[in-house]
Design goal:
heterotetramer; A: alpha/beta; Glutaconate Coenzyme A-transferase; 27% strand; B: alpha/beta
């Protein structure tokens, strides 16, 4: 019997190596896998590259992971937040590397990684500093730049529902980067609000099929709060 | 800068600016409103004129902000404000949401800006090449991807520096993308000739507007 | 009030021009927009390029459109079918051009068109005749070829449910190419089994949001039969 | 071709070949079975050993063929046969379905073939460069994209021509992709050395197998 549901956070985090690229879902506090981030803090892997939309708030979660010196590099579209003190301090001190990526390019680079596309052309960023050093090409009269895929060694994802095969649904705007990162991660770890029996999720309504999911841990924390 | 006519000048207020943009959006358009002033545009589109508002984080068909006791904690927009979803709205993931943007499916995007150049270049994400950690978000995707880009901003900075310029001095968001600019002083189309004035605030003369604008202005005729 | 639902097939087909590229959904008989294909036959546009998975069965639908001499070129992955007589006769007579595309490359090229990606690298077809004349590139130790996007002037799509904003769901394996083509078509025309009131389709269950849909016509024909 | 040992030779039957492949698929694998003989492999994987079968047309988690009175007319596989969906199965669109294939998410694909070369090249979609309208379907995506490609085919053509060759003479489906071949005479791994025999049909000697094979065979030791 396939059972991707693990009982402890330690089991969920087992095997994450130093130097890993970790994709972290969520947009603001919505759909953000906070329990998994805390699990990663506990697990101990360091020298990480983190890809996510923001660069952490306050001194908890991703900000805490950075504050502990465990993140060597962050790839994100919007390093500012309501309280970006940890990131900004580290960044100004030269203790963390930053790669700014337009939000759509970030999503598409991860989708490409999940779909076997190693590189693609896009119009986003043409003529801007994002295009510096990138291959340019005119196609059918418009100029594009080449962007590479962004695969993750690990993806941390929050879902609304999950079953033991790893099928997932998401709640409203909690979907955001989560399904894309699930595709792009070699080891995709999910925290879910609800565990469903196999077959209980309508096959037409599955958003992330279990093929993209490796481990599921049940974290029924309720509603997100604060950004 | 010429200040001779300021006694009579009545700049458009923020609500007037937002309402003016709203008035120009026809029913049926798919529209993304940038963070900041542009977000207010939605308040001036009557619900019965069905305009479908998109947010980068996978929300299509946003309605007005919820009353405080009706907040849905899983329903936010790209500005991380609570919103509502209209009947007919839907959710999608980030790659699909940006496929809408980058694939040219949005009829309109309205962004704020630091500078707009007479060739339609826009600078709206960083005010210095040395900004240590500028935040671009979805601005470059929106500016390059939407069918139309309109900018909603003050005509000058607070100290009077023009924001409609020959060439942007700030880092660009996109090249040649802006089609129209709504400021507190005027509405201008971006054309092959450059900025063409199509409306001005009450009490403002073309010459006075030009005095507040670095780029050369043209009349519509 | 937005109302994408049109009352007649003529309204659904209005404005399709000679020389158009038409994307036609379906896989076998499942999810195939037969009524729209008949509408296109009636409408009269000619010199068409058609992209779909197969090249028609018997003498009906797409095969009929080809038999009438209206299709100059077909782009597909599997020109064979249970009864491909029309295509094969035309093809041997040099009266129709054929571009064979691996099925996944076909899907990805249309998804790219819908997502603003004009070209992308893929490993599919490397070392085969599909790669002849295409740009090759080694990326991270593997060789890939560059494929261009495949946009449609028109997409013909079958849905299970639709509302007046054009939101769509699909039934089981009837989904197939339909959502991808809906994204890739400049003018996307849908035949739907069921018309729903606005808001009746759960927003978490919408598969193709109305932004990708231009016209909807109600064709409650029941279940597909025959391949 | 050496026929000295044919009296004792008992080639594997089709069901035996399919069962042998099935036996080698562990629980939890995501598997695509090609049209034709490979499709039968699923019949030999017991339902309680959960193997998740994928079909190109957006079906993940296929179960056995339905009884005639329980056909679901919207539920077919890539071979356009009626199938069932297991609890835990799901549907997706073609781009997502091929993302599973091309993104390396399938543990295994089993295809039929015309020829397999000792370097793992596979030819399975056209028997001539002049084939007027060859049908490739998803074969190239599957061969290039799955983590493992196994081939299930007869060892020779009906007239005895070897199908395990030095170099494929037919148009290629993919280069260097095949990891294992199951034939009616043997099971062979494709290694850096070439074909390594890991099992043979009863009554067959290594020499007799080599006589039916163009490529050089190796023993496992």
């Amino acid at each position: 019997m396939i059972n991707k549901i693990v009982q402890t956070m330690a089991d969920a985090m087992a095997g994450i190596k130093d130097g890993s690229t970790v994709l972290i879902g969520g947009f603001g506090a919505v759909g953000q896998p906070n329990a998994l981030i805390d699990g990663l803090i506990e697990q101990g892997a360091t020298n990480l590259t983190v890809a996510c939309n923001n660069a952490g708030v306050g001194h908890v979660g991703l900000a805490r992971l950075m504050e502990l010196g465990r993140v060597a590099r962050i790839i994100c579209s919007f390093p500012r937040s309501s309280d970006p003190v940890v990131f900004e301090t580290l960044y100004r001190a030269g203790k963390i590397a930053l790669e700014i990526v337009p939000q759509g390019t970030l999503a598409e680079r991860m989708r490409a990684a999940g779909a076997g596309v190693p590189a693609f052309f896009t119009a986003t960023g043409v003529g801007t500093k994002m295009a510096v050093g990138k291959e340019h090409r005119e196609i059918d009269g418009r100029t594009y730049i080449l962007e590479k895929s962004l695969p993750g060694d690990v993806a941390l994802v929050e879902a609304w529902e999950a079953d033991r095969w790893g099928n997932l649904t998401f709640k409203e705007a909690g979907r955001n980067f989560n399904p894309v990162m699930a595709m792009a991660g070699t080891l995709t770890i999910v925290q879910t609000q609800h565990v469903r029996a196999l077959g209980e999720i309508n096959p037409d309504h599955v958003v992330t099929p279990g093929i993209f999911v490796d481990r599921v841990v049940h974290v029924p924390y309720g509603d997100p709060s604060g950004f | 800068m010429a200040e001779t006519d300021t006694a009579a000048l009545k700049p458009f207020s923020r609500p007037q600016m937002a309402a003016r943009v709203a008035q120009d959006i026809p029913e049926g358009w798919y529209v993304n409103l940038g963070i900041g002033i542009p977000t207010a545009v939605a308040d001036y589109v009557p619900l019965e004129r069905e305009v479908i508002f998109h947010s980068e984080n996978g929300v299509l068909g946003m309605g007005p902000a919820p009353e405080k006791d009706k907040i849905q904690p899983w329903l936010i927009n790209a500005g991380k404000q609570y919103v509502t979803l209209r009947a007919g709205g839907s959710f999608c993931h980030h790659a699909d949401s940006f496929a809408m943007i980058r694939g040219g499916h949005l009829d309109l995007c309205v962004l704020g800006a630091f500078q707009v150049a007479e060739n339609g270049d826009i600078a709206n994400w960083a005010t210095s090449e040395n900004d240590t950690a500028p935040a671009v978000g979805g601005a470059m995707d929106l500016a390059a991807g939407a069918k139309r880009l309109w900018v909603l901003m003050d005509h000058t900075t607070k100290d009077g520096t023009p924001k409609l310029v020959h060439h942007c001095s700030y880092p660009l968001t996109a090249v040649g993308a802006v089609k129209r600019v709504y400021t507190n002083l005027a509405v201008l189309d971006v054309t092959e000739r450059g900025f063409v004035v199509i409306d001005m605030a009450p009490g403002l003369t073309f010459e006075a507007l030009q005095a507040r604008t670095e780029a050369k202005l043209h009349t519509a005729s």
